[in-house]
């Protein structure tokens, strides 16, 4: 009985994910993306550890208490309710049934995502779910080439499943099902020890298995992947104590090495971004190799021409040079050879942003300001008249906000918004209170760094968080991103610390029924 109750949330979540799938009989599509679970039971225990000392002992308890306090069972989506129900102290260890489980997905030329899932260590939980779903308009399908029974989990077009002594296979279509069954048992580690690697969700991306002619909705992301020269990416997402880690290693076409093999970023490039007022900031180093800017513009061209309507345009570099020439600007002589990196920050207070062009010397920074930035002022409604040395020049307005520029040291700062540039200059006088120490904490040389406030995530996804969640994310520690080049591969890492406090503060802000009411 405990197993049935404990796995009710997980079973409900899986059933929701299987709804609305289709099954066709075309050839199997290669798995461009694969996710594999390593130590999922230990990851479940790590989730529960985040709730220690909080008002609820688990996501399941927090959801039950919230529903009791509000009397609004429909206030949260069924998927969120099922996900919360799957995490409680009684069932955390039972997540071991998903050790080594994997989900693979590919994309066909019509833009349909085709998937298959393998659960090699099923203890009967997933098999019982298959039997239950089959009773709801399900049916038997022709057996696999190995003679294994195939079950349809619903009406015509629903997902398919195979239950065998080696595990359970689920798939959207028959072709992917047969391919996954053929692999079942051949993968290293099935029915044996945990798969190799740290606990978490391991994922692999294979851009070469994406369609050569993707549909319109996928055209831009596929073009970006192809333009970067990415061949294979391996990553791990997992909880470590109360920190969420994402580590990624990517192999590239050696001909793209000039694009990625860049010198380290100086953390001081983010001294212009005050820690208490910046929503997000990035700093990127420019390569020293002669082909760096050629590679940058080649990438930009391929992305720009992903839309067939723009395929016949002149190269972006040519167009930029022609536009610059009309203003008397020579970027090939006065800009690209002198740039050592760029940085940008978005401020919450004041509402604005600042960008920094980092040059190879103070003299080059002054030259970039006078010969590149100021002559572009008429595009913003301003005048190209140079300001006295070390004074702020007003370039005009963009989206109703002032745009200003100044040279400081070996950087040209461009501010957008009332008081944004002044705020950046003040921050540089107290770098210990800027974002620079956050990216300097890791000693590994990094050619790209970033710091992001977590409240940006739901906004970028197009969802406004609830007031309690928005307030909690606003107080949370920032996400720190670092990336570099090592042994012919790029590496990237994201770290989000202090999650236990995030959970506690969020639960303090939402209605919770008193213990005696549960």
Structure description:
The protein is α+β, with helices and mostly antiparallel strands and 518 residues long. Helices cover 31% and strands 25% of the residues. Helix 8 (216-228) packs antiparallel against helix 10 and helix 17 (467-475) packs antiparallel against helix 18 (499-509). Residues 1-9, 19-25 and 188-193 have low confidence and may be disordered.
Question: How is the secondary structure organized here?
Answer:
Elements: H1 2-6, H2 8-18, E1 33-38, H3 40-49, H4 59-70, H5 78-85, E2 102-107, E3 113-119, H6 125-134, E4 139-141, E5 150-152, E6 160-164, E7 167-171, H7 174-183, E8 200-205, H8 216-228, E9 230-240, E10 243-252, H9 257-260, E11 278-285, H10 292-304, H11 316-325, H12 331-334, E12 339-347, E13 352-359, H13 362-373, E14 393-398, E15 401-408, E16 411-416, H14 420-428, H15 436-440, E17 448-452, H16 456-460, H17 467-475, E18 479-486, E19 489-496, H18 499-509
Antiparallel strand pairs: 1-2, 1-8, 2-3, 3-7, 4-5, 5-6, 6-7, 8-9, 9-10, 10-19, 11-12, 11-17, 12-13, 13-16, 14-15, 15-16, 17-18, 18-19
Helix pairs in contact: 2-5, 4-5, 8-10, 17-18
